[in-house]
Amino acid sequence: MQKSVLTEIVRSLEKKEIRELNKWLQSPAHNQRQDVVKLFDFLAKNLPNGDEGAEKEKAWKAVFPSQPYDDAYMRQVMYFLLKAIEEYLVFVDVVNDRVQYELALSRIYRERKLEKAYRQAYRIGRESLEGQPLRDNYYLFNKFLFEKDYSQLVIKNAAANLQETSDALENWFLAEKLHLALAMLAHRSVYKTATYNEGLFEEVLAFTQKKDLLKTPAIAAYYFAYMTTTNPSQEQYFDDFEKIILEGNDSSFKKSEMLDLYRIALNYCTAKVNQGNLDFSRRALNFYRRGVENGILLEN
Q1: CA–CA distance, 87 with 25 (Å, rounded to integer)
Q2: CA-closest candidate to residue 183, choices 201, 170, 169
Q3: I need a labelling partner for 225 at 20 to 30 A (CA). Which of 120, 144, 253, 262 fits?
Q4: Number of other CB atoms surrounding residue 280 within 10 Å
């Protein structure tokens, strides 16, 4: 049991999660086995003390003190506990994301043909999406999912939102493709022999340049980051990239994504300074100052 998925998950749980899981397992709606409750209690108390807490025989004695060890039955109890914990983790993840929660709820109402309930859940979900600060791929993808879900609602005399659905899918795809292209560049800079089939990427670049898409924060940030990295001599790309990062909303992207964008900017500035362009030391300082103020560069 020492290297099992179950022990790995239990070791990762925080104290608050352990308390909530104890309540979860006590509820008949989620678990009806007392041996599962006892096994979780044993693991939660003993795993932090070392690998001895993960020995199946010791766990068995704690759960079934008067019965001889039965490995097959022990594995069964472990399985039921694992599934109960996984259900809890998924539940918490969905409930904590109000956008995903309302999206799932609206889909359920649509499939049940509950139009009034659907419209309410859909409205709340869209308001939650627009109200949260992120404008990255998370935002674009969920916007597409809402449009797609609404397009599947059959209402007499209602105008189809197929164009909105197509536009939302397009925006998400472009941002995601640009983001992946940046990841490929970063990986290739470390692993020189890495090769990728970039598929439609050239068409994505051309399409992004032709269409009025650079008003979308995620598309603009990833596009100018890519062009800055691949065209270092054309400083206009960096000028646009710098403006997006330093004048934009810090909360438009997750901190991990913002950190990647800051690194691209700082690496570019460093390369320019090494080439003798000392003005980029001032521009790098602006990134450092902003990154410290907003906590981006203070992340581990």
Answers
A1: 11
A2: 201
A3: 144
A4: 20
Predicted confidence (pLDDT) per residue in 172-204, tens digit: 999 999 999 999 998 988 888 888 888 899 999
Q: What are phi and psi of 278, to 5 degrees?
A: -70, -15
pLDDT in tens, 60-102: 999 999 999 999 999 999 999 999 999 999 999 999 999 999 9
Counting beta carbons within 10 angstroms of the beta carbon of residue 18, is it exposed (0 to 12), middle (13 to 18) or buried (19 or more)? middle
- For residue 225, pLDDT over 90 is answered with yes
Alpha-carbon distance 291 to 137, whole Å? 21
Angstrom CA distances, 251 to 64, 80, 124, 289, stand at 51, 40, 21, 17
Q: Are 71 and 56 in contact (CB under 8 A)?
A: yes
CB-CB neighbours of 146 under 10 Å: 22
pTM above 0.90, yes or no: no
Alpha-carbon distance of 267 to 265, in angstroms, equals 6
How many angstroms separate the CA atoms of 260 and 262, rounded? 5
Q: Which of 151, 208, 210 is nearest to 181 (CA)?
A: 208
Say if residue 22's pLDDT is above 60. yes
